Amino acid sequence: MKASDYLSREEIQSYTRRSDAMGLWLILKSWLGIAAVFAMVALWTNPLTIVLAIVLLGGRQLALSILMHEAGHKTLFKNQLLNQALGQWLGAYPVLGDCDAYGASHREHHRFAGTDQDPDLPNYRKYPIAADSFRRKLLRDITGQTGIRQLTGLLSGAGNRIMMRSGEGDNALRQGLIANGALFTILWLCGAPWLYLLWVAAYLTAYPLVARIRQVAEHGNVTALYELDPRGNTRTTRANWLERLTLCPNNVNFHIEHHLLPSVPLWQLENLHETLTNRGFYRDYPEAVVEGYWNVIKRAVPDLDRNAATAT
After folding, report:
1. CB neighbour list of residue 164: distance below 8 Å, 6 or more residues apart
2. How remote is the C-alpha of 212 from its chain's centroid?
3. Which pLDDT score is estimated for 202?
């Protein structure tokens, strides 16, 4: 199966077109969302807004990591100088990532998806899993255990093996600390430096949580994990506005489309999905597209829904 089986050469060229204007808009939209969350808490400081802010900031941090992912594919901007500079400083570094290292690792995921050589396989190959196991994972995320372990790995270099081998790990981490220092400075100049604690809290709790759900949605308990066709080894999730805000920012939910044509910028993925749907691309794979993330979770954790029904 190839994209050209469903799309003309002209259509593929159109869908893979990059745009500097759209790249700037995606970055601006992501950071405006972050600013809005900080402003909400600054104006209405109470336990409810603080908890809500942590949840929303976790989703916004995921949005930045998606921009890093996009820059790693060289598709965030048409201008590659912008792709590198803005992708790093306004996407990757604030979440202690690196576009180059991520891109190198992620290309291996695309190359080997559907095989036992996929480097990301440990994140989802055990699904479906039992409800008790899934609850323990979520509890580790919510209580910060996952985030602290990941942060410790980043600080020690264990989470940046590719960068460390190339000698770039220390530099990328340094840039990440500078970016976070800049964020703290901006909040301090606005008279509310304490808001940075929300950023840290989200990074250690909500961010690992939404990242886990994203991974499960993309490849957990799919139709055929060890099939090369992306309709078998990957999933697309149709999401509502709340899910887009927290679990799948920047069109990351259209994941089959991304694996079919990794060179398509993320702002084109929804249109590509509609075109493929209309042409019967998913006809023989009815479970490749799921409505909503709760349905994804029910498939990945089958007895979770049964337990809830029993409790009711």
Report:
1. 157
2. 9
3. 98
Q: What are phi and psi of 72, to 5 degrees?
A: -65, -30
Identify the three-state secondary structure at position 176.
Answer: helix
Instruction: For residue 291, give the H/E element and its range.
Output: strand 289-291
Query: Which tokens in the block code for residue 28?
Result: 């601006």
Question: Do the beta carbons of residue 53 and residue 40 sit within 8 Å?
Answer: yes
Q: How far is CA 76 from CA 22, 62, 266, in A?
A: 8, 16, 8
Q: Measured at the alpha carbon of residue 208, what is the angle toward residues 207 and 213, in degrees to the nearest 5?
A: 100
Which of 57, 63, 62, 54 is CA-nearest to residue 28?
A: 63
**Between 242 and 157, residue with greater pLDDT:** 242
- Residue 220 has φ and ψ, to the nearest 5°, of -80, 125
**Angle formed by the axes of helices 47-72 and 206-219, nearest 10°:** 50
Task: Check: CB of residue 92 under 8 Å from CB of residue 68.
Answer: yes
Integer angstrom CA distances of residue 150 from 51, 104, 203, 307: 22, 19, 10, 31
Residues 6+ apart with CB under 8 A from 136: none
At 169, the amino acid letter reads G
CA distance 25 to 70: 14
Give 158's pLDDT tier (boundaries 50, 70, 90): low
**Three-state secondary-structure class, residue 236:** strand
Residues sharing a CB contact under 8 Å with residue 262, sequence separation 6 or more, in sequence order: 73, 110
**Which DSSP helix (H) or strand (E) runs through 238?**
strand 236-238
At residue 237, φ and ψ (nearest 5 deg) are: -120, 120
Query: In angstroms, how far is CA 147 from the centroid of its own chain?
Result: 15
pTM summary value: 0.93
Kind and range of the H or E element at 48?
A: helix 47-72
Tens of pLDDT, residues 278-306: 999 999 999 999 999 999 999 999 988 66
